[in-house]
Specification:
Strand content of chain A: under 5%
Structural class of chain B: mainly alpha
CATH superfamily of the largest domain in chain B: MetI-like
Order of helices and strands of chain A: HHHHHHEEHHHHHHHHH
Largest sheet of chain B: none
Number of helices of chain B: 10
Oligomer: heterodimer
Radius of gyration of chain B: 25 Å
CATH class of the largest domain in chain B: Mainly Alpha
Strand content of chain B: under 5%
Number of domains of chain B: 2
CATH superfamily of the largest domain in chain A: MetI-like
Helix content of chain B: over 70%
Distance between the termini of chain B: 50 Å
CATH topology of the largest domain in chain A: MetI-like fold
Chain lengths: 370, 291
Amino acid sequence: MSIEREPESSMPVSATTPQMDPSTPSAKATPLQAPAILNFVSAAETVAEERAPSPIREYLSTCGNGAFADRTFATVMLICALSIFAIVLFIFIILVARSRPSLAQFGFSFFTRSAWDPVSGDFGALPFIFGTLATSLLALAMAVPLALGVAVFLTELCPAKLRAPISFLTELLAAIPSVVYGLWAVFVLVPIMRDQLGPFLYKILGWTGFFEGSNFGVGLLTASIILAIMILPIISSITRDIMLAVPTSQREAVLALGATRWEMIRTGVLRNARIGIVGAIILGLGRALGETMAVTMVIGNHPDISKSLFAPGYTLASVIANEFSEATGDMYLSALIEIGLALFIVTIIVNAIARALVWAVTRGAPARVH
Amino acid sequence: MNFQTRRMRANSMRRYVVNNLVTGLAMLSTVLVVAPLVAILVYLIYKGASSLNLAFFTQIPAPVGEVGGGMANSIVGSAIVLALASSMGIPVGIAAGVYLAEYGRGKALAMAIRFTADVLNGIPSIVMGIAAYSLIVMRQMHFSAFSGGVALAIMMVPTITRTTEEMLATVPHSIREAALGLGVPKWRTVISVSLRTASPGIITGCMLAFARVAGETAPLLFTAFGNQFWSFKLNEPIAALPLQIYVYAISPYDEWHRLAWAGALVLIVMIMVSVTLVRIYAGRGVLKGAS
């Protein structure tokens, strides 16, 4: 509170106000202007009238320094921020607690056995792990080249007029809910798979053994295709952001050496952005691993491990979606929760790796919200 | 040209061909991506528009085998669950964003929280469903609208936090300094100056988070659970639009398929309108390049 001991003349308000506004009498000017300055901190008019030269000082001495309110506010904000930690921790704890019966009974072998027999209470998650990995990796194999092509086109080749509509469209498509993709897949993709694409693939690639058995339209391949369509917008928009983060000087330098446009993209852009692109792909993988509704609707939901991509399968997420609400008995329920726990841990690891890679390129710059 | 050897000419020819080839491939992949996506949208609008009628918005689902019925209760149910989720998720999300931008800049703790928020964003929605089920439904022994709201609220938090932080970071320091220089306490500066300046962007973030959870089905499967009748109570199972679409889509009845398409169209229009509004809003002023 050293301000209060200072001599009257050194107060900036009383010294400058008459000079700035010489036409008005100073006795009148100060009380009029002081409240204007303090308007948003609230009424100090009554004080200002008697001791015109120092309304700010007067106000400050009556209302204290606000340290208490400041500290409270900062603490509340901190608590809300820490709640994000708490949420993740809490989900983990509650999933472990609820899956204890299954953890105790099967131990680690839960993930290596392929039994799934709710009647006799014998559970193993291998078919679901197989289904999840097969569909996700297949979806990535289809989506990544296309997503990279789109990102390259949008950042380097696209005429400026087309850029906004195309990125807007991909943004909209990222916003379509999973259940709507599923609905489309059930009524459009499944018939196409059954009647056209399936027989075609069998004719051309039947000798590989991946396209055998009866083709009902639902199965691993259909699920992979719908997954690929769903993760495409995510991968391509993050890749686009990362490629935009590459400095223009890099491109100019390569072009100045006489490179063609593709050589510029390859050496100037893709090489600089490769870590982030890998991150974007892993983010897409994380999304594919946990995707539930659309996959559940078209994968066929049968715990099989089969070489054929026409065969029905089951993923970690879809077995939960399908069987959770009708699970009877503690062991059945805890086995399903343990599958959820596995999904939780795997996606956390995958996302952590992906974010670290994306951050490495964008230097911790806040990732865009998609 | 005279001093170019044959090998040099062949080389530049090769480079020319590869360049055009790759350009063509990039264009082709864009077409390959955009075309099916447009096809999905067009088909959806076609199917949905031909199945929509007034009854869809005014009636509750008809019993199996009867023609007609609508999803009025699902629309209202979705609104209730979403309002619940927003009222919990938005304040926490904004407050966490305020911490990251105003108090935690450069701190290791803030970095860790930012990272956790990004990771939380990637956790599958079905896991949120199980967590809310284990936490609330198992304890109460019945499904409830409230548990669905909690699951969705958790999903909203990370998105809102990150956008709020990003938007607050665009507020110039001079504005904050001006307020602090006038003796305004920091908490008041944050609320009346920083947050108010960044408010269009923060609203954008909230709407994006809202649009994202509006279509979520998986977390509601065993929390809100769905309901064929009117329900306004928070501790009872409640209908939700995405849930109803799912149930109808996998049913064997043509009449229900028709309703599923209509529901999907309503859902999509709702989400697209909010995303488009955000886009238009975000294209102006402070928000340029924000979303």
